[in-house]
Design brief:
Blueprint (H helix, E strand, L loop, with lengths): L14 H17 L5 H24 L6 H18 L19 H15 L5 H32 L1
Helix pairs in contact: 1-2, 1-5, 2-3, 4-5
Length: 156
């Protein structure tokens, strides 16, 4: 197929990609702590996901990315995170985690608001819910976006 998207051929990503996406989501969650904001979390999450995935692929011998390729992909991934933060909402909705009024997402966002407006300390339970929410969101959005991009790359 020339100059187009080929959605008829799907391939699973490598285990290194899934590990990188999961850990990148967790790192993005930690970087979204009060005061840092969603943009910083998205930049660090995307960059970490790419760095971990590519690093694992190099370590296992699946790929042999050069230093320049490695760094440039991390920078591009971080830039995409910055631009897409708050705009691209591409993730799986899971009731109780990131969907619904009593989800982990809502509890964490409420904790951030209370911290910012009233200088309340966030409990470890609320912070843990935020880490779980951002890990699930980071993994699912990274997986979905990388699947779409891989389909585009394969069509070239």
């Amino acid at each position: 197929m020339e100059n187009g998207l080929n959605f008829s051929k799907w391939e699973f990503s490598t285990w290194e990609t899934y590990v990188g996406s999961t850990l990148g989501g967790a790192i993005g969650a930690l970087a979204t702590i009060p005061g840092a904001g969603i943009y910083l979390g998205s930049v660090f999450g995307n960059a970490a996901s790419t760095a971990i995935s590519m690093g694992l692929e190099n370590a296992t011998g699946r790929s042999s990315y050069s230093g320049v390729n490695f760094i440039s992909n991390i920078l591009v991934s971080g830039a995409i995170g910055l631009v897409s933060a708050g705009i691209v909402d591409c993730h799986m909705n899971i009731s109780g985690i990131n969907k619904g009024s009593h989800s982990f997402k809502q509890f964490f966002k409420s904790g951030l608001t209370k911290n910012r407006k009233y200088n309340y300390s966030m409990s470890m339970k609320t912070f843990g819910k935020g880490v779980i929410w951002k890990t699930v969101d980071g993994f699912s959005s990274s997986w979905m976006l990388s699947s779409m991009l891989q389909g585009y790359i394969n069509s070239l």
